[in-house]
Design goal:
The chain is of the alpha+beta class and about 230 residues long. Helices cover about 60% and strands about 15% of the residues.
């Protein structure tokens, strides 16, 4: 226990250890995101984690050296300020599909890990960093499984030129689909239109993949994509 207290005390050796650990954990998280070609990758995660660590070390130094100030004030600024960086990784496609939420949450969590390292809570930082990695890497498969079991679809749909939107709605009704919402940039939906539609299968026996197969079999649809 004494050895752990030594590395928690603010010394040159403990500072170097903290920065090294923050770079290592940030790199591990960044590599995972980079392999999935996400907006924030290796360098971003390292900088966020290490930067948060440096802020916390500086905060601890000011508090101990000058015996003044709030020991968590700078940390609070990091927690709120990282939101601006996270927001920059969130994009909305022309199909109104939101991407980057997991990356933004990962950046925020990486900042928290960096703050834990910066104050010397190595157990919390390492446990938290590995937990984040497990969530990003392993739970993605479970998330996809859950989404594949839903009977509600959010689709971006493009109709063929000359197709009638009313005919497409009739097709959905014949296959026991309930239309919950429709969004279109145009005032009216006519032939050769593109829109976003939310569908729910009224038949409990219809699977998620079967719903996609039915939509793909429509003669009125030229292109569709699940959001």
């Amino acid at each position: 226990m004494d050895g752990l207290d030594d590395v928690r005390t603010l010394t040159l050796c403990s500072v170097l250890i903290r920065i090294f650990v923050s770079i290592t954990l940030g790199a591990i998280l960044g590599i995972e995101r980079g392999l999935k070609n996400r907006p924030a990758g290796l360098r971003t995660y390292i900088l966020v984690c290490m930067g948060s660590c440096i802020v916390m070390i500086t905060n601890q130094y000011v508090y101990q050296a000058y015996n003044t100030g709030d020991p968590v004030r700078m940390a609070a600024q990091v927690v709120s300020g990282i939101g601006f960086l996270g927001a920059g990784s969130i994009i909305v496609t022309k199909q109104n599909q939101i991407k980057g939420l997991t990356t933004a949450a990962g950046l925020w969590a990486a900042a928290a890990v960096g703050l834990s390292i910066g104050i010397g809570l190595y157990e919390v930082a390492i446990t938290g960093g590995l937990s984040i990695l497990v969530i990003l890497r392993l739970l993605n498969h479970w998330d996809l499984k859950i989404r594949q079991k839903t009977r509600t679809l959010n689709l971006y749909v493009e109709l063929k030129s000359g197709s009638c939107f009313a005919d497409f709605l009739h097709f959905l009704k014949l296959h026991d689909f309930y239309v919950e919402n429709i969004q279109s940039e145009r005032k009216g939906i006519s032939s050769d239109a593109a829109f976003i539609i939310t569908l729910r299968a009224l038949n409990a026996s219809v699977t998620h993949d079967a719903m996609l197969s039915i939509i793909g079999g429509s003669n009125d649809v030229s292109y569709f994509e699940e959001l």
